[in-house]
């Protein structure tokens, strides 16, 4: 006959064991729920966005844990706290460098890396056409971005980089310099450029942006202090003088010549021509068939002159153009249509002026365009 068992007595668990078990549970939960994204330096981590729909000028730290992303946060920004001063490095002001790109030039990227403005304060934005040339440019650009952002030294890495592809076809198939500058191609070409610039601007301009630097993809040489030098003048819109190096066969040596003729002061002749035009017609600069007799900044350069010498401008080009972000926030964009008989960057200068913002140029401060 089986003997009945007596009452079972459980061994009392020690407090130390309970504490250890609780700590282990917390560690496991943290490991499972925590983000496994790689860490950034302190300065970059502080600027990282927490959601893919957060402002694009902050880098998004994508989680690889597989956890479902919640709804975007409701954020409030006080734009009165965004400083735009002539000492942008001292005040840690964010700069947005925007570049429409149809071809990739290694000199452009190398020059970009040489800029002395803290790269952790710079966001890059690109827009490329969906063409064969655009695809080739995208592949080269992506290669350089990976090399810099993933394998390059920390000081060379930019805060974030945004790449867009155009959702419309280019009006002219070739990007050769001679084809681009034909007079009959100017209005459709520059209208397309204006659309690309606006798409890029409206997509990337964030609430923390202080300055926007428009820099063409074929500008391959600038002073490393370009951003600081232009911002020093504290102008709403300011542009340097764009030149081009070339081999002078007559002098049998390298020489340079003016390149950007869209930086100008208006003339009575041009105003009279505009008054006689139909609403959709535009004035173009640098063509013998349309002599406007404007004062071109390209020809105001004085060798050995003060690089900080300023001149007021009524029209600007886009090869290198520093704009206070508030000018764009006020609504100044690049008209893809005839705006007071001006289009694209020249139309932008006119629109900015109508909003109370005035443009200036530095005729003795040079940047250089690629020579095809």
UniProtKB/TrEMBL annotation:
Its main location: Golgi. GO terms for biological process: cell wall mannoprotein biosynthetic process; protein N-linked glycosylation. Keywords: Golgi apparatus, Membrane, Signal-anchor, Transmembrane, Transmembrane helix. It is a single-pass type II membrane protein. It is found in: Golgi apparatus membrane. Residues 56-67 have a biased composition (Polar residues). GO terms for molecular function: alpha-1,6-mannosyltransferase activity. Residues 48-72 are annotated as: Disordered. GO terms for cellular component: mannan polymerase complex. Belongs to the ANP1/MMN9/VAN1 family. This is Mannan polymerase complexes MNN9 subunit. It comes from Echria macrotheca. The lineage of its organism: Eukaryota, Fungi, Dikarya, Ascomycota, Pezizomycotina.
């Amino acid at each position: 006959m089986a003997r009945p068992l007596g009452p079972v007595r459980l061994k009392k668990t020690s407090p130390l064991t309970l504490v250890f078990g609780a700590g282990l549970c917390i560690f496991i939960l943290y490991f499972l729920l925590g983000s496994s994204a790689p860490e950034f330096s302190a300065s970059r981590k502080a600027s990282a966005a927490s959601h893919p729909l957060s402002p694009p000028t902050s880098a998004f730290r994508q989680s690889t844990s597989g956890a479902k992303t919640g709804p975007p946060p409701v954020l409030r920004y006080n734009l009165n706290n965004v400083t735009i001063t002539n000492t942008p490095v001292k005040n840690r002001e964010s700069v947005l460098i925007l570049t429409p790109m149809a071809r990739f030039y290694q000199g452009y990227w190398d020059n970009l890396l040489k800029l002395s403005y803290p790269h952790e304060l710079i966001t890059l934005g690109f827009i490329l056409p969906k063409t064969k040339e655009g695809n080739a440019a995208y592949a080269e650009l992506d290669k350089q971005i990976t090399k810099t952002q993933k394998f390059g030294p920390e000081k060379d890495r930019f805060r974030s980089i945004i790449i867009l592809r155009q959702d419309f076809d280019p009006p002219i198939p070739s990007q050769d310099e001679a084809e681009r500058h034909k007079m009959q191609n100017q209005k459709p070409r520059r209208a397309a450029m204006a659309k690309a610039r606006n798409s890029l601007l409206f997509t990337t301009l964030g609430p923390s942006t202080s300055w926007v630097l428009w820099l063409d993809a074929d500008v391959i040489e600038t002073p490393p202090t370009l951003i600081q030098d232009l911002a020093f003048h504290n102008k709403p819109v300011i542009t340097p003088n764009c030149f081009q190096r070339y081999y002078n066969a007559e002098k049998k040596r390298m020489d340079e010549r003016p390149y950007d003729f869209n930086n100008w002061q208006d003339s009575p002749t041009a105003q009279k021509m505009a008054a006689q035009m139909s609403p959709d017609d535009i004035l173009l600069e640098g063509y013998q068939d349309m002599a406007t007799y404007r004062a071109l900044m390209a020809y105001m350069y004085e060798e050995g002159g003060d690089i900080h010498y300023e001149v007021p401008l009524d029209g600007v080009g886009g090869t290198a153009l520093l704009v206070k972000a508030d000018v764009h926030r006020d609504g100044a964009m690049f008209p893809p249509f005839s705006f007071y008989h001006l289009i694209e960057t020249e139309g932008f200068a006119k629109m900015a002026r109508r909003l109370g913002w005035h443009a200036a140029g530095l005729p003795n401060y040079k940047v250089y365009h690629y020579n095809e």
